Amino acid sequence: MSGRPAGGRTHGHRAAEAAVRRWVRDQRPPHALVISGPAQVGKTTLALDLARGLLCTDGAEAARPCGSCAACRRVDHGNHPDLHLVTPEGAGGQIRLAAVQALVADLALKPMEGRWRVALIEQAHRLNPDAQNALLKTLEEPVGAAVIILAADDLSALLPTVVSRAARLRLGPVAQAALVRILAERDLSDPSRAAEIGRLAGGRPGAAVTLASQPETMIAIDRLARSLLDLAAVSRRRRLAAVPGLLSDAATVDEPSASGASRARSTPAERRRSVIRVLSTWREVARDLCVVACGGAAQVRHLALLEDLQALSPHVDYRALVAFLGRLDGHIAAIEGYANPELTLDVLVLSWPSTDGAARAAA
Ligand SMILES: [Zn+2]
Fold first, then answer.
1. What is the per-residue pLDDT across 140-175, written as a single tens digit (0 to 9) for each?
2. Could you list the residue range(s) of the whole structural domain that residue 119 is in?
3. What is the tally of structural domains in the chain?
4. What is the DSSP string of 156-197?
5. Least buried of 52, 89, 225, 284, by fewest C-beta within 10 Å?
């Protein structure tokens, strides 16, 4: 087995990296590839490693992608004529039929420069059914020189007929050591925070890079998580009064550079996103409480909260906490669909298991 090509950017997904290296070395990639895994885990990075590897002009196949030839650099800049990127567009954030039809037409042409045409469909779980059906014909009758890569957070959003015609790589969370290496490679490693960033990122390199490069995001996440934990010990009235603060911190997490004024004019979609951010942070905090109660402090995601979690944990009703965790997932799905986000948040702040009585009794 040859060493790692200089231009490979993926870390921590060894089996998938080996598959990509083999396809590049043998110049025999699958005509269609589905890469699935959680958001920000490295699907696009891996897909671009394959694209760079196939389009690279370095003399030795085993050294591709070299990362420094003109072809590799053009892939990095997104302007290689044989690389076709498709991403969701418009208010609904979908990939529509027209975008796929344009892609299929491009792929039918001979490569402009190299041996391959590579298409990367990012967030392929947002392909609507018409668009998937349009893609199906190309997947059934592959064109010689085309490679279509679908990167999807949620495999179940793809038609079985699409998935069954493609090779598949599944990316799981990467190890902490790989996250630290990725941060160091980008000059983002601050040893004092590396462990905390690694935990919060949950094994997702993209999330680790975002957190490390935007300290204000980390601060807002910490504040949001702490506010949620603190709600357990306060009255119903103070819980409801805390909701605007939660939403404001959530908006800062998603868009750290926006001013307060521009946030006040937020759209319904942005408010929905903020509520989902609150709920997903809440899920982590509730999970951390459970983990601490089981003696698993080493597995806590919100390390900054560890002492507070340990102080609170003896006062929590765990049956209620587990039930609350179960409800959170349902509410996140409902908000992504039709439910009123603000109303859902009000309901949840009131149903967060209380430690008020227990804490007072212990005091
Ligand atoms: Zn190259």
1. 887 778 999 999 998 999 999 999 999 999 999 999
2. 14-170
3. 2
4. GGS-HHHHTTSEEEE--PPPHHHHHHHHHHTT---HHHHHHH
5. 89
